[in-house]
Amino acid sequence: MDVKEIIKKIKAGDLGKVYLLHGEEPYYIDLVCDAIIQHAIPEHERDFNQTILYGKDAELLSLLSELKSYPMMAERRVVVLKEAQDFKQLDDLESYFEQPNDSTIFVICHKYKSIDARKKIVKAAQKEGILLKSEKVREYQLSEWIQRYVKGIGYDITSKAAMLLAEFLGNDLSRIVNELEKLSIIIEKGTTINDIHVEENIGISKDYNAFELTNAVAKKDSVKAMKIVQYFEYNPKAFEFPNVVSALFKHFSQLMRIHFFPVKTKDALAQQLGLHQFVVGELLISKNLYDPKKIASVVALLHEYDLKSKGVGSANTTSPELLRELVFQIIH
């Protein structure tokens, strides 16, 4: 069952007895858990009929006692085990999963790592309750995810603004949603969010960021690239070296793949790479400037400078200085 279906049922009052929420992406786990807390029991009943425990501090016997307790002057009670990845006796809950208390809703939030699907507890949860595996959104899907989310809350967003957010915030969905919610307070519904909105309200420069630097390098625009590098030198907090290396590596990896695709039309490449056609158009321009041999040498440079940024063979060189060297060598 997917997240939307689970939340739809929760809001309709169709609640399971056990929810095992696990996986690398915490955003969806929190989304389902919050929906249960909000809709399972009325607010005035929560003091007596809602218990939230944390995996690091929870003890098996006290947890089972909570699960088997009956609600006080209410239809049901809710027990939430947060940070369940720190609960060492998770497997011992299997027997409870097989015979859960009819008046208790038990929610397990196991974040940042999936539970082995072969474990009996997973099979028991799937049989007797609701199982959600929360997968990370892949980097190449992030811009599209942002566009879908923005449309879902009543706005639109330009491709450039979505890509800026994706590059700057990474695939931390909670952080992305938090920033977009701030924007929704300021910007009127129905507005198309653009790079100016992002720059003015989220603090990401529309001209000086990893995305624009990658574009400049991709087009061998040394003047623009060095302007951005200089901006980073004066504003070292505006960039993180690993993020720039990651953005450049992603670009050149995609270029290499394009070189060896038999069909190089925009439609075919967009489908193969899972990218917006606008991005594919930019990649096709860059492809003509970097042949496979050059791309291989660039990837080797990225690896070398990633190590240097971590102190390997270049202990006294600052990140902006390393970036200047790296960009110069790629373009020239």
Tell me what the structure shows.
This protein is of the alpha/beta class. It has three domains: 3-134, P-loop containing nucleotide triphosphate hydrolases (Rossmann fold), CATH 3.40.50; 139-202, Helicase, Ruva Protein, domain 3, CATH 1.10.8; 210-331, Up-down Bundle (Zinc Finger, Delta Prime, domain 3). It has 17 helices and seven strands. The strands form two sheets. The protein has a five-stranded parallel β-sheet, with helices on both faces. α11 (210-218) packs antiparallel against α12 (222-234). The longest helix is centred in the last third of the chain and has 20 residues, at 241-260. It is elongated. The termini are far apart. The mean pLDDT is 90.
Q: How many domains would you count in the coordinates? A: 3
Q: What is the H-and-E element order?
A: HEHHEHEHEHEHEHHEHHHHHHHH
CATH class placement of the largest domain: Alpha Beta
The major pleated sheet works out as: 5 strands, parallel
Going across the biggest sheet, name each strand in turn: 2-3-4-1-5
Overall, the morphology is: elongated
How many H/I helical runs?
17
Give the helix level as a range of percent.
55-70%
Structural class per helix/strand content?
alpha/beta
| Strand proportion | 5-15%
Q: Count the E strands.
A: 7
Radius of gyration: 25 Å
The pLDDT mean sits at 90
Oligomer: single chain
Measured between the Cα atoms of the first and last residue, the distance is 52 Å
Please give the CATH architecture of the largest domain: 3-Layer(aba) Sandwich
Q: Give me the CATH superfamily of the largest domain.
A: P-loop containing nucleotide triphosphate hydrolases
